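[Automated response] Your request has been received and processed.

Submitted sequence:
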Amino acid sequence: MKHRTAAIVPAYFATYVGCYAAAYLLRFDFHLPADFSDLFWGTLPVLLLVKAITCLSTGAWQRSFRYASLSDIPYIVSGATIATALFFVLNATVFTAIDLAVPRGVIVIDWLLAIPAIGLLHSHHRLFLEIVRPLFGRQDNHRALIYGAGPDGIGLLRTMQSSNTEYEAVGLIADVPKKSRVLVGGVTVHSKWIDWSTIVSRSRASHLLIPSAVPGPEVRELVALCSESGLKAHVIPAVNEIVDGRYKLAIRDVAISDLLRREPTELDNVEISKCIRDQRVLVTGAAGSIGAEICRQLLRYEPASLVLVDHSELGMFTISQEFEARTDCKTPLRFVVANVTDQKRMDNLFSDFDPELVFHAAAYKHVPLMEENPQSAIRNNIVGTKTVVDLCDQHGVDRFVLISTDKAVCPSSIMGATKLVAEKYVQAVSAESKTQFVTVRFGNVLNSAGSVVPTFRRQIAEGGPITVTHADMERFFMTIPEAVQLVLQAGAIGGSGDVLILEMGEPVKIVNLARDMISLSGLKYPDDINIVFSGMRPGEKLREELFYSSEERSQRVHDKIFCGRRTDVQIADIDRDIALLETASRRLGADAATVLRDVVAAYVQRDEAPPTSLRPAA
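Generated structure:
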């Protein structure tokens, strides 16, 4: 509020005058003495001055009325007590000397009245929102139930009661006995074990608000219950998701990522910060889904500088617009359009920016597309990785992190095979380099560009059908922010040559994912949107794997990170193989795919996986 102090100070002074006058009336049983007027008006300015000085020294006028709470009580009591003590001393000395001594009972009564009066003044806004307004109600408010009566649910209830929002909390649903008769904040706590249609009938609610901390499987159940009982489900984002304002209540529809959400990851922020803060950082593939999120999260740890590299002009323009609009970014940023296969250009970048930490996220990732373009996959995913790795070694980069994929495990696709070779090269160079080389491997991420979720969303918008390749197709899924959090954690704790594998949870059937997206769109399968099975595409597997046989007993180095140990690769051998692949990638025809398949079959066999798991591309 622009003129907040100008409104608060008169309100305080009016309250003080009223309390002082009431103290006289109570002290003399409403029979005021003849000299009351001289005594009252003669001492009132001094009382107000003392209390004003006390308010300034204790910061009472800076405390928010809108968000008044129990934490304000000690400050109100201590401020009133200090002011009364000072006035008591002045009364015993100055006022007594000039024959204006105030009866001590008046001073004590004024103190007793000032504490609740100032407390009421502080809380009047909350009293109106939480007590007065609900008595009359607002006809345009949506009646909403809140899921959970723990800290998240209660916090949401209090926020709704103290905010101007279009939702009115009419009850909480919690894990309490069926016959429970509990009220919290004036609203009923319903047992989640009774029929939800009964709860809806009693509360006349039309919406269910779900705190973001609720795990994904539970959200899935809640969405199904809401569908059966006629409620519309919404999610309340976590604080770090709310960008419109610190105290604004943001409510959004349930997204597919909510259904797959896992328990929050506990990060070692101290270790991550030591790795990133005040470091010169370079990220390749910075305009991609993973690369862009890496850059967003890196900025939280305040690196000395951040260089974003990508070969897509449009992608770099988009990410530069986003980052340059941020007002909280203190890190110098450079946006570079360059291809990681251009050795001379990349060498100039390393010379100019002298990075200390490199995240290599540049890669071609679309499996069917790379089946048709093996030369390009080899050039970008293998030769490009080799170029960046060699430059890190030559320029003395402290740490390098390769973003890999579960498709590199017993690869059946060109894309997976190229990522396996990239893993092997990083592992081989790490044995002879001072740079710490770490590889991080994980499965699919939700909502990445060109992935299954945006594809399904587009097909639903077009009226269907949704195409799924096979009824039994399964994939590991993780949200982009969680994947990147673990990438940063892995990059901070990994040793040179380590292949760190993210714990991806249980695999998800793609057909179930499609049905969930249909449901979340407010439609029904198969009445509104049908699912058709188109058959597996070249290079695809029914199920992906995260570990080779030799990695099955990998050491857990973090709650959600494993360290895989595999057979060592000699640098001479991998150099020879990459030279063969690079030569093949410059030829037309199927030679490149054949050479790649032969090279990778040997690596797979060495890692104790059946060589037949590498099936030829169709």
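Summary generated for your ticket: The first strand starts at residue 142 and ends at 147. The radius of gyration is 33 Å.
If you did not submit this request, please reply to this message.
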